[in-house]
Amino acid sequence: MTPHSATSFDNSDLPQLQAIKAHLDLVLLALEALTGLGSDEMLVVAEKLGLEEILSDRITLWRLRQASPLRKGKGRKKLDVDEARAMTLISCTLAAQQQFAIRNAVAQLEKCTALKRLPYREPILGDYLDRFNTLYQERMAEEEQAKPEAIQRLALKLLVDLLFYSSQIGSRRLWVALFERSQ
Amino acid sequence: MRNSSSKSNIFNRCYDLPTCSLEVWTERSPLSDWQSQIVAQNLRFQLRLANGQKIIKGNQQQITNLIEAVTTYCDRWLAQDDFETLDHAIEIPQLSRLKLSTLQLFDLYEGLELCANEFVILPNVVLEVRRLNPNWLKVIAGAIAIVGVTIGAVRLIAPPFGEQPTYQIASTPAASSPEKVSVAPSERPSENTAKTTDLPKSTNSLPNAAIAPAAPNTSQTPQDLNQDLNQDLNQDLRREAKTSVKTNKTAIAPAPSNNSTSSDRQRASANPPAIADGMITDSATSQSRRWELPNKDASSSPTIAAESSKPLPAAPSAKILLPSPTSRSANINTPINIKVSRIQSELSSDITTDLTNYLQSQKLTSSATGTLILQLEMSDDRLSNILIDYQNSTLKDNKAIAEIENILRQWRSPSSATDKIRLILNLK
After folding, report:
1. pTM above 0.90?
2. CA distance B250 to A160
3. Which of B80, B105, B120 is the last residue before a domain boundary?
4. Full residue range of the structural domain in which residue B102 is found
5. Is residue B167 part of a domain?
């Protein structure tokens, strides 16, 4: 799902950079969908990592996530490198905390895929996919709305991504992946 | 991961993960000293996948390839937005093809990263030894030879130019006597020849060579003088005699050199006068005697030492000529110049200088040479009385003496004064 930039002044960044902002938001979205984490937990992690200067309140967090080109609403769509890094660290820290849940979900996915069963029928995966779908449709702009199949594939992909980001050095992988995406 | 006990140089690590187990044996490379991590050397690994279903063993190069392949695959995978399959196939050089599930891939990636974080695993470097192209060597050798020969040739040619002046300077002092004053004369020959033509005096035409024979003559004077003078004067005169040889060579010397020699003589002869003015007469007399001797020997006119018309350094001082034989015959038809060999008075230097300059600018018509000693009395701005010391003067030509008297009477002083002046003139 490649986000195409809206025809507005706000999205003056290069398309490659748009992908970075979109992905960061989606990673957090996947975490929310899988684990039920909210902005509170994100802010706690931000404080633990010493990122209060960049991210200290829900409004700021919302604004940073709002920079995603997929999101509804106009407004500031800029994201600093510092802010992107902060979001990277927060996402990976949260993923590392939830590694067990993530691994379980991926294992389930592997199994049902091997058995050729539909993912949404699985207990954990079904909940995840439902929540992901709901949040996505709530937050993303109209023109970005895709077919449910596409959203599901996106969700599953993000799930596996979360598995890799949940490692001890996951933040480095995410950071590298962001730049891989931008190319 | 468990750490097994290791010797100082050999490490063994085991990275256990849910779906794979990686065991590593490695030596510690000496390069570790320059790294914060341990640099692996002769690394061996064993990878157990899928709970032992697949075992892969390899060396350092193979694990390097494995890490490279897995990392690249995963990074590319994560950058994609979509995926087709959860089964992953990774091609690894020097190893078999890996087929992994996602979790296996993740665990493998994790184990390899943990190992790579702990050890620095460098790829093996194969050094190739190739023979240099012989043609290149010949060209380089030839170039070096040319450069070397050029430098050597330049060194042979260039230095002599730089060294010759030093040799020149060094040789002349060696030839001359080891006197302080002699150093200066060594440099005079060149100057003298240059200035020979400049000085408008008759004696200037004398070549240095002509003066050279005077050296032995003058050298005799110290011997004669030794009998007459006290030891201090003897030493001074000896010194001066030696220098006189030099000054003879440098007969037509520029003023500075003359000043130095004459000042030496002056020192020698002036020492007694310096003691007390009252003794001037005696010393002057003895000096005149001194100078008589060489004059007799050579029927000479004094040397050019005092030729310079420059002002005398001090009021009671006077230049003393070095007697040396000069060919008078050449001067018969030429005007006679007056040289003030000595002027003694307590007058200011302005007056004495003026008188000296005045006298020396005069020329006599009568061709007579010799020394003339006069005692002058000055009052107001002119000479009121002129007394001639016939006894001590060598000049006997009355006509010349009369001319000199006339000249003296016509002199006017720049300032008024009343005093006595002792004057010794040399005519040639």
Report:
1. no
2. 110
3. B120
4. 2-120
5. no
Q: Which residues contact B184 (CB under 8 A, 6 or more apart)?
A: B257, B260
Distance in Å, alpha carbon of A72 to nearest chain B alpha carbon: 20
Radius of gyration over alpha carbons of chain B, in Å? 53
Please check whether residues B206 and B312 belong to one and the same domain: yes
How many folded domains does chain A comprise? 1
Residues B217 and B356 in one domain: yes
In chain B, % of residues over pLDDT 70: 56
pLDDT at position B238 = 56
Please report whether residue A106 resides in a domain: yes
Shortest CA gap B43–chain A (Å): 23
Chain centroid to CA B280: 47
- Nearest beta carbon to residue B102 from set A110, A153, A181: A110
Whether B154 is in a domain gets the answer no
Phi, psi of B42 (to 5 degrees): 55, 50
Q: Which chain B residue has the Cα nearest residue A162?
A: B78
- Please give, rounded to a whole number of angstroms, the shortest distance from the CA of B68 to a CA of chain A: 14
3-state SS track over A93-124 = HHHHHCHHHHHHHHHHHHHHHHCCCCHHHCHH
**Residues of chain A positioned with their CB less than 8 A from the CB of B117:** 169
Contacts of A12 (CB under 8 A, 6+ apart): none
pLDDT, one tens digit per residue, over B56-75 is: 999 999 999 999 999 999 99
Q: What is the DSSP letter of B198?
A: T
Half-sphere exposure (CA, 13 Å, Cβ side) for A71?
Answer: 24
Q: Are strands B54-59 and B370-379 parallel, antiparallel or unpaired?
A: unpaired
Burial letters B274-290, b for 16+ CB under 10 A, else e = eeeeeebbebbebbbeb
**Same-domain check for residues B323 and B415:** yes
Does A10 reside within a domain? no
Query: Residue A141, exposed/middle/buried by CB under 10 A (0-12, 13-18, 19+)?
Result: middle
Sign for the pseudo-dihedral over CA of B203, B375, B295, B342: negative
Out of A132-141, A156-165, B22-31, B392-401, give the one with best mean pLDDT. Answer: A156-165
Name the DSSP letter for residue B10. Answer: E
Q: Is B135 exposed, middle or buried (0-12, 13-18, 19+ CB in 10 A)?
A: exposed
Domain range for A172 is 15-181
Beta-carbon separation of B81 and A157 below 8 A: yes
pLDDT tens per residue across span B116-160: 999 998 877 766 777 767 778 888 889 999 999 999 999 988 876
Which distant-in-sequence residues (6+ apart) come within 8 Å of B161 by Cβ?
none
How far apart, in whole angstroms, are the C-alpha atoms of residue B82 and residue A158?
A: 9
**Comparing B2-16, B28-42, B290-304, B328-342, which segment has the lowest mean pLDDT?**
B290-304
Domain annotation covers residue A34: yes
Q: Do A160 and B83 touch (CB under 8 A)?
A: yes
The residue out of B120, B154, B172 marking a domain boundary is B120
Domain count, chain B: 2
Are B390 and B241 members of one domain? yes
Task: Please provide the distance, in angstroms rounded to a whole number, between the alpha carbons at the two ends of chain A.
Answer: 16
